[in-house]
Write a structure and sequence with these properties.
Length: 267
């Protein structure tokens, strides 16, 4: 299935937004999406070949196809020459629209871990609890995690283990309604997310951006903190630096953050 969309798979799938995509020797990307093993290959700057799903609308939305990329790049570029140059050098990078539960659970595991370690933990959780799809496993539901949590120590989640199980328990019981976050504005969303044990401001911003479409979110990790200091001379608390990013880059600050992150990630 061919998807006609201006998207660049390498920076979109390979820069730490989602953690289930692996680049294959032929340059294509293999991942698990909605319990399907999906392969995507760049055909041209404006087209992608997709194998493993027939859901054209769903996969296009997942790739950020609802975003008006031209308008977004124009808006953030007007606000900052440096980001404008990064966007110019990385055309087609988009922000994914990730499954709400999967993104929330994944980023709970992301605390104090680099991209490689996050990917290892996520794959281990999927291999232990998710549906067997053949050579890969689906991302487990809260019930699947609870049904099999007697062996969760084998996933080697460290201090995140109890938090992960508690999250599954609260979602499965209805104490946390993951879909309710979709109805909140940015401030409400990040505040509610931080009520969950193990979720601080950075993880809340990541989930707000990658799952709940709050494009103004501006997550600050160690990499972005250094960039903000080196390029913009901005230091201080998480709250202060993130607020600076949101004010400087406006309603699409999340896209600006991704360009800054990608430029540092590949350097």
């Amino acid at each position: 299935m061919r998807i006609d969309l201006e998207v660049s798979l390498d920076p979109t799938l390979g820069c730490g937004q989602a953690h289930r995509w692996h680049k294959l020797d032929d340059g294509s990307w293999e991942g698990v999406w909605r319990n399907q093993i999906v392969t995507m290959k760049q055909i041209s700057p404006t087209s992608v070949e997709v194998i493993g799903t027939d859901d054209r609308k769903g996969i296009t939305r997942y790739l950020g196809g609802d975003d008006d990329l031209e308008t977004i790049i124009s808006e953030i570029s007007k606000r900052d020459e440096y980001v404008a140059s990064l966007a110019d050098r990385c055309p087609g990078m988009r922000i994914l629209r990730q499954d709400h539960w999967e993104c929330l659970a994944t980023y709970l595991l992301a605390t104090n871990a680099n991209v490689k370690r996050i990917g290892q933990m996520v794959e281990s959780v999927c291999d232990h609890f998710g549906d067997d799809l053949g050579r890969r496993h689906g991302f487990p539901t809260p019930k699947q995690i609870l049904d099999g949590c007697g062996c969760i120590a084998e996933c080697r989640l460290g201090f995140r283990e109890s938090r992960f199980v508690t999250l599954a328990e609260r979602v499965e019981s209805g104490d946390i309604d993951v879909e309710s976050f979709s109805e909140m504005n940015y401030e409400e969303c990040v505040a509610a997310l931080q009520d969950i044990n193990g979720i601080g401001p950075k993880v809340a911003d990541c989930v707000a951006l990658f799952a709940f479409e709050h494009m103004e979110a501006f997550p600050i990790d160690a990499r972005i903190s250094k960039v903000m200091e080196d390029i913009y001379g901005v230091t201080g608390s998480y709250k202060a630096v993130s607020a600076y990013g949101r004010e400087k880059f406006g309603e699409y600050a999340g896209y600006a953050q991704e360009f800054l992150y990608h430029a540092d990630f590949i350097s």
